[in-house]
Amino acid sequence: MQVAILAHGKFPDRAKTAVGILRYADYEVEAVLDRDRPGTRVSDYLPDVQDAPIVSGMDDVSDVDALIIGIAPIGGGFNNSWRSDVRTALERGCDVISGLHYFLENDEEFAQLAEENGCDIWDVRKPHDDLTVSKGKANEVDAEIVLTVGTDCSVGKMTATLELLEAAKERSVNAGFIPTGQTGIMIDGWGNPIDRVVSDFTAGAVEEMILERGDDYDYLFVEGQGSIVHPAYSAVTCGILHGSMADKLVLCHEADKEAIHGYESFSLPSIEEYISLYENLARPVQEAEIVAGAINTSGIDDDESARKAVESYESELNAPATDPVRFDADDVLEGIL
Asked: What is the pTM of this model?
């Protein structure tokens, strides 16, 4: 499927959905929309993902099948400055795929245009209606459950999950993916948007996916969300931890990060404290251990300094660690398997 990705003013550093699509999805990306960077290319900013031109808006895009909203702002709201691009896409008969909390299918103008032009709006973050509470059965599947957890939100949990999944498949390990967020769902075409689920059903929504896929694989890599210490997102983190009944945890961190994203008056605890928090919280439901770590070194310019950051993180964890995008994931994968 040929797509355009909307990332106005945010590409690449604050458009993690766009970057995730470019790096991992099977879509053919024809263009990225960012009115601050027209005339450049994705490869000018990200050399290790699918390349595409960056243009001002949908008027500059050739024929595509869909427009993807590639931004996931705090709160998931819709910026009205994007309206003209969404309108243009729908008028041209393009489907629109959105991971916002604002459901485009409920927008009167967009719904009418979709109907008139025979196209679909997929609000990825809209959960299905039949979710239930957890029954505490995720540990009954055949697969070993591996969950990525974080020291904060936006530190690379989805990226680490998909990199480890790919590394496992390269070693002919029978491994599957459990997407829990909008980008992962867009990439895999399936999943439950855990941060949009009613609180009572959070663990159940994760369990549902694991029960559906757990006997088809030897390992299931579950995409984590948020952080157990995040003032806004800790509830979804706990729900995934208990609903997945994970056997092993991979702690994801961003190099040199000291404060919580969006809540900079809150300092990050020590790595030792994170290990204690996650393992102790998991224990009453399912014994789980942090067996490896993933560290995001994208803010470090040179590889030598990045390797030192990895080595320091390994020492704090007392477990193998890597930046799975910058370096290989062999030692971390070995620690998991």
From this structure: 0.93
